[in-house]
Design brief:
By secondary structure, the chain is of the alpha/beta class. It folds into 2 domains: 8-73, Signal recognition particle alu RNA binding heterodimer, srp9/1 (2-Layer Sandwich), CATH 3.30.720; 86-143, 2,3-Dihydroxybiphenyl 1,2-Dioxygenase, domain 1 (Roll). Helix content is 26%, strand content 24%. The chain is built from 3 helices and 7 strands, in the order βααβββαβββ. Strands 4-7-6-5 form a 4-stranded mixed beta sheet, with helices on one face. Strands 1-3-2 form a 3-stranded mixed beta sheet, with helices on one face. The two termini are 29 Å apart.
């Protein structure tokens, strides 16, 4: 049996801290402590050469279970659909109207944080219904 390894999910984006803080709010993640010798991430960022300031940010699961999320600034904007996306599981174990209500409630919360609702994908023979959304920079993700 293969050994389970820790991994991180990396997002290319224009404003790393903005996208990271959005995902902190979505997932209940936190910003880790700054490197030793720095009182804050702002202090660390100011110590970098100007061309690297604001170029990266991260957030972590406070329980240490979920993957680290890393956000890096890239010069190009998003042009096509993501090849990989996150599924935010909010209705696990629910069915029918109860499931749809849970999805809609979470969708409203995330829209208030800056997400955009794209569409509801109805259930089919393989998948239950889910809501396709976009984060604050247009990266797709699903509520399911």
């Amino acid at each position: 049996m293969a050994e389970v390894r820790k991994f991180q999910v990396t997002f290319d984006c224009a404003v790393p801290e903005r996208v990271a803080r959005f995902w902190c709010d979505v997932l209940g993640y936190v910003v880790p402590a700054p490197p030793p010798g720095f009182a804050s991430w702002d202090d660390f960022d100011r110590a970098l050469p100007s061309e690297h300031q604001g170029s990266k940010f991260a957030c972590v699961d406070p329980e240490g279970i979920g993957p680290r999320l890393f956000f890096q600034r890239v010069p190009e904007g998003k042009a096509v659909k993501n090849r990989v996306h996150l599924d935010v599981r909010v209705a696990t174990g629910l069915a029918g109207d109860e499931r749809l209500a849970a999805l809609e409630t979470e969708c409203e919360r995330l829209v208030a944080l800056g997400a955009v609702r794209v569409r509801l994908l109805p259930a089919d023979d393989i998948n239950e219904s889910c809501i396709v959304m976009q984060d604050v920079e247009g990266n797709e993700f699903c509520l399911d």
